[in-house]
């Protein structure tokens, strides 16, 4: 004899939502009432982002650069970048054909590293024909976890990167080897932040990457005062072949990142639509709602 | 299951063929004829491994399988390869294997090689584990069976020793005792029974628990002592193993070249149980997998549900979609590549420093895309469907409403994969007896010699019985519960064997096996009662007072005197005597006594027997004493003259001996104790008995009171093959014409006033469906004449009556005619009352006539070729010139709740056909009783033997329908009672328009033909329900077969997909579980499609932004696990537990069934709407994050993370929208899935630094969790994506609520309101229907509208004398039919209520089953036109209240 339990007899207490205009009305109004303020908040925040206040972030942008190509994305060896000595000398096969050059393993191997952006940007403020260079901070632009966990220089005796990278060769397109990316030890080799930023492959073909930080000196002045500035670019990186464009972006960021009005507008729109639908449903409910409560509508 | 057998057969055939023999297909045995030793190579030779046969034995026996069985598919060694091999037979698995292989091609590799294998490995492992467990349980069972012990003769030890079953081989001698199970098919060589008989119970083979008789091979039965295997020097030759249980051919060749034929009567089948016989010895002829039981064991049958077929076709659409998307990718990639003149940084050149040409790259990309987007073809769907179905079946099996107290049985789901078909049934084909009715045959009326006896008292008893009945049965249940549940399940054979083993051991535990059980079996218990059909309602018959009076006259007269001068005794009295003798004799009932169960009562010729039991002595004594005392000396002399004088003397001597035995006295006293003093015994008789009392102690008390039916001795158990027989025997007993014993050669009847009569049983011509009657040929002990008693259907019997009876005078001829007329009138009356009718007739043969017939009969019996036909002819020759004695009417009460159930099912839009073997009147009456027909329905009858004529008649009927309806324009319903030979298409036409169809006198084959016809021609979903062996073929043919655990054994149940105990359970099974299963599974399947398409499309959209390079923005692991883990459980829970409307509402508003019946939830448009929604949702899910992060510095996997997370929310919340009821299980599973996702991704993000190139989503989730934008994106995406569907559902629910929605509202009401609302609902439907009727009849004024209104019954009357295949046809026939029709239609114009088109035709043969008759074609065309309108209005038909 079967057990007479609620589960076996399919009599479990259940919430049985019935979706009719009457029952869902509040939901639509609530969504509308929540979304519209959120949207306005986001929109305002996004519009308040100014280029000259607080810390200014300096980006370079590339368009039409498919950093998300499947084989490009794969063409790296995270173990090598993590300082694994054996991977350093014997990089992953994924790096082909940028794995070895002249029988020497490439460090860092792979197409991503090989195609690293290597223009240099310098910003000057022009004050009465005098060019004052703006201090561009090159540390702190990469993810903390990348810089400290994911990317590491090979380990060995001493801190001499040249010795540590012994037996490897530079990527084909690079002018100089990886251990000469920077003069400072904690920003050289694999933990060079420009390199790390580049290695975080962009999701979309039009992207920007953080290049430098401009720190605010004091609270009285904006970081970048109004005036004339000049940007000096050392042109190393060809983009013509793929019809690419380069950009330089200066921006401050808020709690929700850079300036992008989309999210705010979307929230406001959706909120409004919900509110409107709520009104429509109210009308429908008023007109037809009574039919539902009884069963006397013919088929 | 089927496989090992096929394999075994194959191996067997190969073995034979290697020996240079012809391979004989054992299954195709019917075409094979037995031939003599010329073709002996086709047969097997069985010889014992003894003596001089040894060499030959070794040669021969290695060809035969031994008795070890292995039903498992796998062994430890071959499990993995074989299981994989089997699994890759599935297309879906092959597809995924193909993907895995594809991913190993470096050029197209999309994922890491290992990851792609994961889903496949998981699926394969799950199924392999399932298969393995199943196989292991089979293995254990096999082992258990193989290790059972039996007594096998050992040559070394010269005695029978215990041996495992598996060690038994062909040629072994086996000795079995009572209640032991037969280990292999063997030829019976010795039985401790004096007549060389052995009883077996074949319950495990066919579920029939009545005893079957088997005989010792001729020539061996005379041996007094047990056969000595050492001396057995014969060889047995028999046919090759085959699966025909009802046939066995072979012969024994003695050393002197004498041959003795073997038949199935000599064969003991594996798995059966020896009953009632102390010991038997047999020689094994087939062992192990070659036994008939194993060959018959075809294993579970797989049906594919309609839904599954639809799912498969939709999966093909998915494949098409996949190919389209991949093509897009391929072309896109080619175009993208061709834009670049030089190699850009981000494109990696080949080894030679060059890029592959765009076209080739595009081609490669196609395959990469297939790997990437593979999830579009939902591999998880197949596994999920399986799991969901298991869950649904589990819930069905646990439904307490299916539990039947009386039989302690609940529903059995024997087929696991067609539960959802229950929700789509359009036609139900129901057997009548035992399905709609209880199959408890109650003797109601009889007519003897034209005089009717109403049995009013019995009717009254039956009325008052109702309450008593249930109480009694309840009390008996307790005792039976334990026994009964054992016999419930008889899946395949070995299980059955196993169970009967259990049963046996249980019996042994309970002490004297049957004492506990059988004593009560005479009183009650329907289920155990299928042994004896002996519920009290059946066994107790209150005699008719009028008839009883006449009986008392017989008693006071001496029968013997009347025998001397027949004319003196009124003719009527002889009729009555003969009538009841026929009831008692003309059957195959086995008699046993409860407290010594299954021990047959016997009165053998005493000369050659030792005294076996107390009963025998008592009976013999009683016989002698009663006869001596109650009759004049003359009869005893006369009677004894039929026996040898020797035996008479010995009888007397035993009599004396018995008197001397003190032990017997005690026993007799014990027997006499319960003697009931107020038994209505004949005073005279009891006086006489008192005298005997003095002589033989109280012995005869039992004899006397046995008539009454309350003393222990009288509790004879009658084990009949059909309940009708039992009912008749019990009826006879009520009139004190008690069947006392039955042996193969004699029957003893205890007749009040006449004493015990022992008839020498000459022949039994068993019942068959062609003759529709059975006969016994006996030698009357008094007149010493050969008498034939025949009983059968009146349709055949009436034609066999001889006008010139043996009495021969004109007077009696007149009398006969009168009797015939009156009896016919009574019969018609019985049929109208829904009683089952039987005619009883007799024939007295002179010795010469008999000898002549006997000669012919012997020829028939001994012939080898077409023995069956000859025997049939012989029987027909005998059954002529009968004298009608009377008729009986047996009532078979409707089961509880049948009318309600049928009404509900009809309201649910299901058309119900009743297929029965009964005659038309009975069938129609039952149909009315169970509300299959309504009083104002119009009946059309179609009866003919030919297809062409049928078509014509159909034509006429249809025209008639049109005329009538257009003229009347009333809402009175018409019933076309179309009866046709089922091979015609006519029933199919009518089916569309008829609400109910009754087919009568249908044979099992015809039943299945009809079902197949409807299934194929109308493409309808059919359900067949039945309880007996005659329904098996129908059950197998139908889409869904339902068996009823009834009184007629387990065959129907074993063939069925679902087995229920009561017809009324069908209501809940279909209306509730069918509806639920269907909607649940449908919704789940649609959800799966949605889920996969929505998720995969996210990847697809991304391709537009990565140069169609096949990049995935989500980590591969998460991608794979998303389907496998994060979103797999909720849909399964949804598929098992979702409940759109409560069971109560579904039961009360059957109209809701139409929703699932018409696949409203899964129309083709639904599929596409679902896909459209999936596309929309994926678009939203991709592009909201896209625009949010456009132009930012986001990296690939950080971009994918919010998309993936939002997708998870969307997919799970979508499910919540679709859920009709959310229980805590749903909540737990959904919340659990979300939590699991976050835990997993967080853990993955925290640990995966370098181990999972290229993504290594280190710290991505962690960063996002602290980023408000992530939450804002997810929230917005989820809301926007779900908004349309939510809105759609809301509008649907508000503006166009489906009946299901409305029913759901009812759930929320308080009970009173609910009741009110349901009532209103029904009223509405009626009003609504009427409205629409007016519309249709107004608009069309022609036939179409009217036809749809029409409802009809078709009663299929196949030819009574010819089997189904012989249909008639011809020019002459057509003429006849036309004129007939005209006549009839002329009549029917005047007759308004019932219109009968009646055609009787000469028979001719028609070999082509689907001939090309013009009129037939015309009809089909016309009806198909009308069929459309009928279909479109089908919903209306169903809702008339």
Automatic annotation (TrEMBL), chain A:
Entry's Gene Ontology cellular component terms: apical plasma membrane; endoplasmic reticulum; Golgi apparatus; transport vesicle membrane
Keyword hit for Transmembrane helix: yes
GO biological process: phospholipid translocation
Stretches the record annotates as Disordered: 76-100
Transmembrane segments annotated in the record for this chain: 18-44, 262-284
Principal localisation: membrane
Family per similarity comment: Belongs to the CDC50/LEM3 family.
Protein's name according to its UniProt entry: Cell cycle control protein
From TrEMBL, chain B:
Transmembrane feature ranges: 91-109, 115-133, 315-336, 365-385, 1084-1104, 1116-1137, 1167-1189, 1196-1217, 1223-1248, 1269-1288
Key words of the record: ATP-binding, Endoplasmic reticulum, Magnesium, Membrane, Metal-binding, Nucleotide-binding, Translocase, Transmembrane, Transmembrane helix
UniProt KW Transmembrane helix keyword: yes
Catalysed conversion reaction: ATP + H2O + phospholipidSide 1 = ADP + phosphate + phospholipidSide 2; a beta-D-glucosyl-(1<->1')-N-acylsphing-4-enine(out) + ATP + H2O = a beta-D-glucosyl-(1<->1')-N-acylsphing-4-enine(in) + ADP + phosphate + H(+)
Cofactors required: Mg(2+)
Gene Ontology cellular component list: endoplasmic reticulum membrane; phospholipid-translocating ATPase complex; plasma membrane
Domain P-type ATPase C-terminal: 1053-1298
Residues annotated for Mg(2+) binding in this entry: 431, 433, 1027, 1031
Compartments it resides in: Endomembrane system; Endoplasmic reticulum membrane; Membrane
Positions of the UniProt region annotated as Disordered: 666-685
Domain of life: Eukaryota
Annotated catalytic residues: 431
Family matches, as CDD domains: P-type_ATPase_APLT_Dnf-like
EC number: 7.6.2.1
Protein name: Phospholipid-transporting ATPase
Native organism taxonomy: Eukaryota, Metazoa, Chordata, Craniata, Vertebrata
């Amino acid at each position: 004899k079967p057990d007479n339990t609620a589960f076996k007899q399919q009599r479990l207490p259940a919430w049985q939502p019935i979706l009719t205009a009457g029952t869902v009305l509040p939901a639509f109004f609530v969504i509308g009432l929540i979304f519209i303020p959120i949207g306005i908040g986001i929109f305002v925040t996004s519009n308040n982002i100014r280029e000259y206040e607080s810390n200014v972030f300096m980006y370079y942008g590339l368009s039409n650069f498919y950093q998300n190509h499947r084989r490009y994305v794969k063409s790296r060896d995270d173990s090598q970048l993590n300082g694994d000595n054996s991977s350093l000398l014997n990089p992953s096969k994924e790096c082909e054909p940028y794995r070895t050059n002249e029988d020497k393993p490439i460090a860092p191997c792979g197409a991503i590293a090989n195609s690293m952006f290597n223009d240099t940007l310098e910003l000057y403020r022009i004050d009465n024909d005098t060019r004052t260079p703006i201090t561009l901070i090159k540390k702190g632009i990469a993810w903390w976890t990348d810089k400290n966990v994911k990317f590491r220089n090979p380990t060995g005796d001493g801190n001499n990167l040249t010795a540590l990278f012994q037996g490897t060769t530079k990527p084909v397109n690079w002018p100089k080897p990886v251990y000469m990316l920077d003069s400072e030890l904690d920003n050289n080799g694999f933990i060079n932040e420009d390199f790390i930023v580049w290695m975080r492959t962009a999701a979309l073909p039009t992207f920007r990457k953080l290049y430098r930080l401009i720190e605010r000196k004091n609270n009285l002045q904006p970081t970048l005062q109004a005036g004339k500035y000049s940007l000096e670019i050392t042109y190393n990186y060809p983009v013509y072949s793929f019809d690419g464009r380069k950009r330089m972006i200066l921006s401050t960021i808020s709690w929700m990142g850079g300036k992008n009005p989309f999210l705010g507008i979307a929230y406001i729109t959706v909120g409004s639509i919900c509110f409107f639908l709520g009104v429509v449903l109210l009308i429908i409910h008023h007109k037809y709602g009574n039919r539902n409560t009884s069963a006397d509508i013919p088929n | 299951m089927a496989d090992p057998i096929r394999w075994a057969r194959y191996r067997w055939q190969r073995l034979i063929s290697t020996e240079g023999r012809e391979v004989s297909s054992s299954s195709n045995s019917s075409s094979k004829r037995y031939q003599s030793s010329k073709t002996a190579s086709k047969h097997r030779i069985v010889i014992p491994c003894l003596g001089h046969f040894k060499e030959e034995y070794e040669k021969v026996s290695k060809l035969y399988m031994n008795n070890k069985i292995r039903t498992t598919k796998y062994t430890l060694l071959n499990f993995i390869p074989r299981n994989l091999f089997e699994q890759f037979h599935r297309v879906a698995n092959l597809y995924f294997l193909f993907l895995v292989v594809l991913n190993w091609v470096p050029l197209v590799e999309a994922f890491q090689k290992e990851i792609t294998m994961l889903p496949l490995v998981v699926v394969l492992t799950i199924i392999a584990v399932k298969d393995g467990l199943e196989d292991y349980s089979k293995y254990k069972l096999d082992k258990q069976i193989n290790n059972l012990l039996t007594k096998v003769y050992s040559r070394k030890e010269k005695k029978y020793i215990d041996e495992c079953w598996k060690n038994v081989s062909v040629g072994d001698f086996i000795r079995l005792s009572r209640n032991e199970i037969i280990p292999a098919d063997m030829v019976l060589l010795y039985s401790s029974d004096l007549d060389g008989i052995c009883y077996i119970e074949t319950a495990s083979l066919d579920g029939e628990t009545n005893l079957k008789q088997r005989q010792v091979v001729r020539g061996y039965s005379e041996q007094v002592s047990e056969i000595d295997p050492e001396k057995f020097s014969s060889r047995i030759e028999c046919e090759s193993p085959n699966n025909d249980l009802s046939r066995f051919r072979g012969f024994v060749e003695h050393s002197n070249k004498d041959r003795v034929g073997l038949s199935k009567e000599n064969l003991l089948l594996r798995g059966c149980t020896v009953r009632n016989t102390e010991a038997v010895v047999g020689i094994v002829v087939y062992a192990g997998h070659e036994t008939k039981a194993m060959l018959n064991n075809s294993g579970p049958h797989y049906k594919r549900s309609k839904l599954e077929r639809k799912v498969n076709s939709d999966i093909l659409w998915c494949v098409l979609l996949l190919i389209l998307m991949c093509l897009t990718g391929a072309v896109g990639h080619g175009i993208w590549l061709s834009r670049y003149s030089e190699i850009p940084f981000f494109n990696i050149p080949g080894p030679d420093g060059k890029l592959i040409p765009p076209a080739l790259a595009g081609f490669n990309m196609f395959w990469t895309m297939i790997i990437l987007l593979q999830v579009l073809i939902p591999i998880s769907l197949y596994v999920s469907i399986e799991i969901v179905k298991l869950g649904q079946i589990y819930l069905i099996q646990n439904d307490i409403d299916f539990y039947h107290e009386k039989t302690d049985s609940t529903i059995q789901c024997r087929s696991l994969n067609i539960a959802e078909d229950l929700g789509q049934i359009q036609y139900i084909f129901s057997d009548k007896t035992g399905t709609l009715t209880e199959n408890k045959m109650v003797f109601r009326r009889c007519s003897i010699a034209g005089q009717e006896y109403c049995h009013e008292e019995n009717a009254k008893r039956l009325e008052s019985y109702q309450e008593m009945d249930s109480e009694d049965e309840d009390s008996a249940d307790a005792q039976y519960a334990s026994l009964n549940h054992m016999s419930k399940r008889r899946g395949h054979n070995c299980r059955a064997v196993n169970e009967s083993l259990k049963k046996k051991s249980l019996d042994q535990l309970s002490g004297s096996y049957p004492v506990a059980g059988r004593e009560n079996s005479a009183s009650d218990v329907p289920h155990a009662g299928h042994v004896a059909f002996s519920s009290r309602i059946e066994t107790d018959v209150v005699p008719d007072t009028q008839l009883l009076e006449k009986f008392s006259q017989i008693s006071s007269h001496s029968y013997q005197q009347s025998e001397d001068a027949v004319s003196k005794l009124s003719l009527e009295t002889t009729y009555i005597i003969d009538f009841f003798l026929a009831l008692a004799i003309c059957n195959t009932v086995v008699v046993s006594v409860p407290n010594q169960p299954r021990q047959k009562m016997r009165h053998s010729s005493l000369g050659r027997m030792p005294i076996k039991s107390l009963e025998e002595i008592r009976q013999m004594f009683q016989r002698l004493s009663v006869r001596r005392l109650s009759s004049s000396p003359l009869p005893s002399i006369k009677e004894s003259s039929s026996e040898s004088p020797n035996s008479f003397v010995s009888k007397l001597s035993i009599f004396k001996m018995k008197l001397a035995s003190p032990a017997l006295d005690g026993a007799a006293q014990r027997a006499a104790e319960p003697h009931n003093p107020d038994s209505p015994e004949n005073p005279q008789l009891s006086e006489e008995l008192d005298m005997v009392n003095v002589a033989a102690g109280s012995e005869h008390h039992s004899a006397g009171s046995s008539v009454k039916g309350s003393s222990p001795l009288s509790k004879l158990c009658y084990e009949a093959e059909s309940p009708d027989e039992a009912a008749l025997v019990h009826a006879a007993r009520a009139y004190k014409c008690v069947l006392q014993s039955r042996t193969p050669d004699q029957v003893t009847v205890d007749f009040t006033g006449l004493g015990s009569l022992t008839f020498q049983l000459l022949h039994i011509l068993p019942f068959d469906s062609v003759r529709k009657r059975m006969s016994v040929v006996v030698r009357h002990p008094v007149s010493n004449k050969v008498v034939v008693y025949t009983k059968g259907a009146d349709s055949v019997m009436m034609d066999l009556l001889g006008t010139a009876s043996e009495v021969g005078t004109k007077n009696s001829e007149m009398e006969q005619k009168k009797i015939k007329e009156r009896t016919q009138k009574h019969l018609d009356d019985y049929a109208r009352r829904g009683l089952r009718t039987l005619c009883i007739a007799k024939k007295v043969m002179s010795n010469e006539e008999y000898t002549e017939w006997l000669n012919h009969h012997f020829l028939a019996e001994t012939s080898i070729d077409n023995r069956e036909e000859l025997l049939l002819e012989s029987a027909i020759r005998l059954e002529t010139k009968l004298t009608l004695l009377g008729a009986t009417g047996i009532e078979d009460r409707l089961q509880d709740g049948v009318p309600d159930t049928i009404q509900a099912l009809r309201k649910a839009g299901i058309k119900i056909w009743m297929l029965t073997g009964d005659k038309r009147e009975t069938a129609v009456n039952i149909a009315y009783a169970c509300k299959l027909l309504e009083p104002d329905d119009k009946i059309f009858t179609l009866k003919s033997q030919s297809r062409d004529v049928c078509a014509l008649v159909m034509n006429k009927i249809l025209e008639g329908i049109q005329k009538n309806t257009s003229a009347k324009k009333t809402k009175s319903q018409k019933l076309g009672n179309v009866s046709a030979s089922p091979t015609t298409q006519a029933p199919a036409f009518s089916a569309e328009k008829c609400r109910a169809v009754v087919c009568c006198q249908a044979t099992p084959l015809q039943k299945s033909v009809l079902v197949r016809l409807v299934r194929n021609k109308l493409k309808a979903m059919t359900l067949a329900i039945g309880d007996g062996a005659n329904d098996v073929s129908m059950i197998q043919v139908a889409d869904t077969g339902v068996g009823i655990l009834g009184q007629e054994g387990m065959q129907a149940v074993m063939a069925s997909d679902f087995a229920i105990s009561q017809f009324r359970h069908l209501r809940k099974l279909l209306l509730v579980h069918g509806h639920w299963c269907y909607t649940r599974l449908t919704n789940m399947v649609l959800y799966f499609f949605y889920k996969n398409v929505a998720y995969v499309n996210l990847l697809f959209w991304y391709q537009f932004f990565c140069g169609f390079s096949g990049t995935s923005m989500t980590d591969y692991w998460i991608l794979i696990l998303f389907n496998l883990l994060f979103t797999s459980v909720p849909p399964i829970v949804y598929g098992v537990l979702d409940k759109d409307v409560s069971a109560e509402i579904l039961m009360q508003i059957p109209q809701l069934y139409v929703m699932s019946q018409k696949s409203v939830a899964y129309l083709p448009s639904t599929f596409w709407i679902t896909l459209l929604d999936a596309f929309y949702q994926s678009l939203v899910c991709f592009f909201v994050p896209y625009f949010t992060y456009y132009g930012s510095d986001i990296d690939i996997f950080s971009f994918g993370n919010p998309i993936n997370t939002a997708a998870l929310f969307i997919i799970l919340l979508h499910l919540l929208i679709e859920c009709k009821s959310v229980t805590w299980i749903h909540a737990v599973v959904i919340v659990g899935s979300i939590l699991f996702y976050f835990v997993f991704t967080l853990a993955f993000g925290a640990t995966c630094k370098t181990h999972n190139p290229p993504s290594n989503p280190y710290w991505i989730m962690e960063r996002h969790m602290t980023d408000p934008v992530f939450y804002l994106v997810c929230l917005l995406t989820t809301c926007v994506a779900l908004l349309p569907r939510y809105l759609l559902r809301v509008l649907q629910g508000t503006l166009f609520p489906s009946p299901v929605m409305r029913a759901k509202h009812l759930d929320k009401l308080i009970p009173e309101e609910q009741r009110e609302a349901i009532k209103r609902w029904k009223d509405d439907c009626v009003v609504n229907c009427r409205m629409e009727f007016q519309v249709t009849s107004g608009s069309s004024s022609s036939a179409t509208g009217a036809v749809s209104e029409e409802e009809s019954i078709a009663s299929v009357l196949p030819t009574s004398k010819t089997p189904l295949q012989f249909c008639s046809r011809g020019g002459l026939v057509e003429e006849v039919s036309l004129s007939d029709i005209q006549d009839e239609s002329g009549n029917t114009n005047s007759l308004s209520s019932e219109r009968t088109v009646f055609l009787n035709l000469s028979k001719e043969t028609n070999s082509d089953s689907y001939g090309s008759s013009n009129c037939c074609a015309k009809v089909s065309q016309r009806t198909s036109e009308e069929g459309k309108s009928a279909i479109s209005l089908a919903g209306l038909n169903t809702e008339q209240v």
